[in-house]
Amino acid sequence: MRRLLDGPHPVVAAISQPDRRRGRGRKTSPSPISELALASELPLLRPEKVGDKAVVDELARFDIDLGIVVAFGQFIAKRVRELPSLGYCINGHASLLPRHRGAAPIAHAILAGDQRTGITVMRVEREMDAGAMALVRETPISETDTMGSLGERLAEMTADAIAAAVDSIAAGTLTWTEQDHAAATLAPKIEREDARLSFQQPAEQLALRIRAMAPKPGAFTMLEGEPLRILEAQVEKGATDTAAGTVRRGETGLRIACGEDWLIPLRLQRAGGKPLPSTEFLRGRDIADGTILGEPL
Q1: For the whole model, what pTM was predicted?
Q2: Which of 295, 262, 193, 277 is nearest to 230 (CA)?
Q3: What is 2-183's CATH number, 3.30.230.10, 3.90.1560.10, 3.40.50.170, 3.30.420.40?
Q4: What percent of the chain has pLDDT over 90?
Q5: Residue 297 confidence (pLDDT)
Q6: Number of C-alpha atoms within 13 angstroms, CB side, residue 271?
Q7: CATH 3.60.130.10: does it fit domain 192-284?
Q8: DSSP assignment, residue 253?
Q9: Distances (CA, A) of 152 to 53, 165, 202, 267
Q10: In the chain, count of helices (H) and strands (E)?
């Protein structure tokens, strides 16, 4: 939104989710887009359902040429999609479509062990993330990338690509390419259970899950009946001589036996506590040698 407001094409209105309860205090507050629109004195709509007739009628007053959708979180009805004078809306999606269509493409790219990802600017259609593509930008996924760090990089790339797409649309030079629908994969919303660590899995897979869930919701296991988040970890190759989930203590901290190899937690967080380096965490909450993490299968 900032990139568009700073660009050469007038932004005539903004649409965002209604104000929601947010943060620990659960106070009602506007979304970041709403805050920016209000600060910019931009006309702002915050509908529960963007496809309602009253909302569409209100949008029609703005004489819109093009709609831009990013991470909106509501189904965009046909009468909204086709309302602009150009007859369509565009979307910036954080994956190399058709791979990882859905609500959580960044986390799923890391979970899958993808070496590269990127963003795609496409047309918004009824089927989720299935519209024709206009621009694609790629970036490598490093071995230390988390959902947080990768998400920040992709957000900047999306802003650049959306701005470039709008320039090309205005100039009449943008071309569209249909997706290979047979190659599509899905990236559904991350649920709480997706963040649970099962130490029967290889340590390499668990390390990917930890990165994919960091910083939020945070991959977790159970320690004496309470959730323990593991926010950063590395893999130590080697045979395990004990049951999966068993903690082994050493001079450098702790390691956890997995279905294959060992997981070395580097950053931990207990319920209600702050994220801490594991060495500092263990000074305040010891985890004894032989402790078995997780819940019985």
Answers
A1: 0.93
A2: 277
A3: 3.40.50.170
A4: 90
A5: 47
A6: 7
A7: no
A8: E
A9: 35, 20, 28, 21
A10: 8, 14
